[in-house]
Design a protein that fits this description.
This protein has twelve helices and 19 strands. It is α+β, with helices and mostly antiparallel strands. The strands form three sheets. Strands 1, 2, 8, 9, 10, 11, 17 and 18 form an eight-stranded mixed sheet that branches. The chain is globular. It starts with a helix and ends with a helix. The structure holds flavin-adenine dinucleotide. Flavin-adenine dinucleotide binds next to α2, β3, β12 and α9. GO terms for molecular function: 3-demethoxyubiquinol 3-hydroxylase activity; FAD binding. Pfam families: FAD_binding_3 (PF01494). It comes from Arsukibacterium ikkense. Keywords: FAD, Flavoprotein, Monooxygenase, Oxidoreductase.
Length: 400
């Protein structure tokens, strides 16, 4: 699939039920679910995903996909093609401060074979794109230059000159959503002082099935397994230090990693690295008129517990269910009643997860003595209570 073959599907004027702007993981899943249900859908995306090359190095952007997201992606038919490309299941999740006192959450405690999978963002996006039906109209590479709204339609003018009339426009164009701004929806939130360095590493182990996170006063250090001996590390630090680390050669970064990370990392070698700023953002409203937000366009969360795209898929699942049900009853998919129902359900759930992650970030990310005692107590209680461990494991897989 190349940009050329997807491009220029640009009728001068097109009327559809729903237009999705942003064909990343969340937007592509929404476009797929709606077109499978028989709605007329258009998808606008800046850049199509590249073809899969089995010999290629893994994408540096990887996500931990929980069981709830996996179940929905399976129902959409995108999980099986992803399995044929590359992904890595993990059975154990470990959290610790001191490497000698590790709390382990095991998929077996909730009678599952795995707690989740580590997937490469671009491959999951590609697996979804591969399922998009021919009837879906793609505008790619393209983007929105103008939005106007009437009482019964939203009108988008694209860079290519095409004009799209839709009953509903879904903004799934990421954290810096242009469509959110065009719709006049403000946000609140902040940039964290910390940033995170992400590196692809070769480990000395043939295959791992555990993802772990060590909490230290300067920030968490995490390992995520990838297929075969490879893995991904995430290193949270003060933003200036992260930028400094990201400028090192792979050999120099390997030395820094081996000094800073706990022994269970093993003698790794860095292949490549990048860094990401960390921001918390919550849109003031999830909709304005006939424009509705989903995924990172609506909220961005500290990636500490790997929940961002899982929350996005939960938005996408609910929103598409509401739209499909309205469509089946020949009701308006862009009605204020439908969009406010979506917001009432998803906004509090997303805010709760954001605040929980911030609580963790505060509790585990500093060296104030009372908090040190509190987190030691939390980890000790967690390590001794099988009920609590099962509860955390269920929360991690997205079922509670
Ligand atoms: C370091 C790090 C680690 C993370 N780890 C995890 C994890 O383990 N688990 C997890 O669940 N989440 C994780 N996340 C969060 C996750 O990456 C995001 O939540 C997810 O990418 C959001 O998907 P999305 O489709 O909403 O937005 P995006 O992935 O940002 O996709 C937006 C799409 O819109 C397109 N686009 C943008 N602007 C326009 C425009 N104007 N016109 C047309 N198209 C446009 C883009 O090209 C892109 O394809 C992590 C994030 C970071 C930074």
């Amino acid at each position: 699939m190349t940009n050329e073959t997807l491009a220029n599907n640009t009728a001068e004027l097109l009327t559809v039920d729903v237009t999705v702007v942003g064909g990343g993981m969340v937007g592509a899943a929404i476009a797929l679910a709606l077109s499978q249900a028989g709605l007329r859908v258009a998808l606008v995306e800046k850049q199509a995903p590249a073809q899969f090359d089995p010999g290629s190095a893994p994408d540096l952007r990887v996500s931990s996909i929980n069981l709830a997201s996996e179940a929905w992606l399976t129902a959409l038919g995108a999980w099986q093609p992803l399995q044929q490309m590359r992904l890595c299941p993990y059975q154990y999740l470990q959290a610790f401060e001191q490497p000698q006192s590790v709390v382990t959450f095991d998929a077996a405690t909730i009678k599952r074979s795995h707690l989740g999978h580590i997937v490469e963002n671009n491959l999951l996006q590609l697996a979804l794109w591969q399922q998009l039906p021919a009837e879906l109209t793609r505008f790619c590479p393209d983007s929105v230059v103008k939005l106007s709204q009437t009482s019964d339609s939203a009108i988008l003018t694209l860079d290519s000159g095409a004009q799209l009339h839709s009953k509903l426009v879904i903004a799934a164009d990421g954290g810096n959503s242009q469509l959110r701004q065009l719709a006049g929806i403000g946000t609140n939130g902040w940039q964290y002082q910390q940033a995170c360095l992400v590196a692809l590493v070769n480990t000395p182990y043939p295959q791992q099935d555990v993802t772990w996170q060590q909490f230290t006063p300067t920030g968490p250090k995490a390992f995520l397994p990838l297929p075969g001996p490879q893995g991904s590390i995430v290193w949270y630090e003060d933003a200036a230090r992260v930028k400094q680390l990201a400028a090192l050669s792979p050999q120099q970064l390997t030395q820094e990693l081996l000094k800073a990370f706990p022994a269970q990392l093993g003698k790794v070698e860095v292949e490549s690295s990048s860094w990401f700023p960390l921001a918390r953002m919550d849109a003031n409203s999830y909709y304005a008129g006939r424009v509705v937000l989903a995924g990172d366009a609506a909220h961005t969360i500290n990636p500490l517990a790997g929940q961002g795209v899982n929350l996005g898929f939960a938005d996408a699942k609910l929103l598409t269910e509401l739209i499909i049900s309205a469509h089946q009853q020949q009701q308006d998919p862009g009605s204020a009643a439908l969009l406010s129902r979506y917001q009432r359900k998803r906004k509090p759930a997303n805010l709760l997860m954001m605040s929980t992650m911030d609580g963790f970030y505060q509790l585990f990310g500093n060296d104030i003595a009372p908090l040190r005692s509190l987190r030691q107590l939390a980890l000790t209680v967690a390590s001794r209570s099988s009920m609590l461990k099962a509860l955390v494991a269920r929360y991690a897989v997205g079922s509670e």
